[in-house]
Amino acid sequence: EVLTELAQQHGVQTTDEEFAKFLDEKDNIAFLRDDFILPKYIKCPDKDGRLTIVSEAHNIIYLNGHSLGVQPKTSKQHIIKDLDGWAKKGSLCRSEPGKIFPKEDERLSVSMAKLVGAFPDEVSIMNTLSVNLHLLMVSFYTPTQTRHKILIEKQAFPSDYYIVQSQIEQRGFKPEDSIIQLQPRENEDILRTADILDVIEKQGDSIALVLLPGIQYYTGQLFDMEVITKAAQAKGCMVGYDLAHAVGNVELKLHDWEVDFACWCNYKYINSGVGAVGSAFMHRKHENNERPKFIGWWGHNASTRLDMTNELDLSPGINGYRISYPNSLGLCVLRASLAIFDKTNMREIREKSILLTGYLEHLLLSKVSKYIEIITPKDPEQRGCQLTLKLKYTASEVYSKLMKRHVICDVRKPNAIRVGPVPLYTRFIDVYWFVNILQEVLQDFTKKIVL
Ligand SMILES: *Cc1c(COP(=O)(O)O)cnc(C)c1O
Ligand SMILES: *[C@@H]1O[C@H](CO)[C@@H](O)[C@H](O)[C@H]1NC(C)=O
């Protein structure tokens, strides 16, 4: 409706190229695209359909930021500066002001905390998502004979699934007895909040931990974290979230929602490169908890860490969960990326995102609804920027053709593609071109089948 109204005001149709240009002109954060390097190389299918030939193209439509964000332009400068300092000064590089040692990770927590609605001392920059999940489960999964279950979704990301299984086994329980799996109703793709609450209501007394994604990686469904957290805690369960697909994508209020803990990776919407250093959140209410935890020297109060007394002065809160010296080069890229987020805020990003994904959805429904089904929820409050399209044709074949036309998104076997117009660097015109290309590709398929 908003789109139709805007188009009418401007005297164009929502499906006109003119309209995409108009939306780009009135985009308040369009300037941020200049802070990123957009990919220029694409793998094209050879005559057998294998994606091998690498060619350079200047008009790539990158819609894969949900899988790997693009590179902030200043990353290289930060890394070179860091390497130069090390080369010239050796160990002395560590004591320079503004350098990694000893508090750079704590400095970056300030910007990161804003993205998740937390206080800086509730967020720590460390390890990777899966490692952080293990570390936090050491504290927050404390099963007893009567309360040993973990509630997860059946389609949980494989890493989360393995982590849960191994943690359960580690405590002497059996995954088959201790995992409760949520799944959508028959012929539905999306979990209903009411169904999740129902399981919590009925089985909550036996559940030690509710572990869900903020946004489901496959369907793009955004969970109602506030409501789920409240219901689960009322039943005495701990609540943790995997925010891999939610952070930098939607507004989060982890502190106000009273979430117990969360962890996320920073290479998707946070654009900090393959295998980037990850992050974790623990609510202030657990600041001085005496739960079991694994401890290393980086959890020691930074001011006296180097006194080397072996008398632990553990940092309160999540900072006490840090184990090792953070990777300096990793932090360089994260610093470059968070500086871009600092120029805006999640409310502004989300506002564009709702319009941009709404525009994508509108064009898909107008132009290719014959060939696809969008399984992501229609309600903007129940999704982030990504839409998942179920195709009538083999997704990898469609994707080969899309790649040939310089589109990068991703395929989930057997017949889905995920399309993520990331608002920080995606233009409305990119979305417009993408849908036109998809329409041509899908029409080609239809013709072939008729012949
Ligand atoms: C990407 C992703 C991960 C990745 O975990 P790493 O430890 O960073 O490799 C985990 N969980 C979800 C839901 C993801 O989407
Ligand atoms: C760390 O130690 C210093 C010096 O003893 C102290 O002033 C500071 O409050 C401590 N920090 C934390 C977070 O406990």
From TrEMBL:
Keyword entries, A-Z: Cytoplasm, Hydrolase, Pyridine nucleotide biosynthesis, Pyridoxal phosphate
Residues noted as binding pyridoxal 5'-phosphate in the record, renumbered to the chain: L129, S130, F157, P158, S159, D160, D242, H245, Y267, W297
Pathway assigned to this chain's UniProt record: Cofactor biosynthesis; NAD(+) biosynthesis; quinolinate from L-kynurenine: step 2/3; Amino-acid degradation; L-kynurenine degradation; L-alanine and anthranilate from L-kynurenine: step 1/1
Compartments where located: Cytoplasm
Keyword Hydrolase (UniProt): yes
One Pfam family named in its UniProt record: KYNU_C
Catalyzed chemical reaction(s): 3-hydroxy-L-kynurenine + H2O = 3-hydroxyanthranilate + L-alanine + H(+); L-kynurenine + H2O = anthranilate + L-alanine + H(+)
GO cellular component term of the entry, any: cytoplasm
Residues with N6-(pyridoxal phosphate)lysine modification: K268
Enzyme class: hydrolase
NCBIfam families: kynureninase
The protein's name in its UniProt record: Kynureninase
Name of the gene encoding the protein in the UniProt record: KYNU
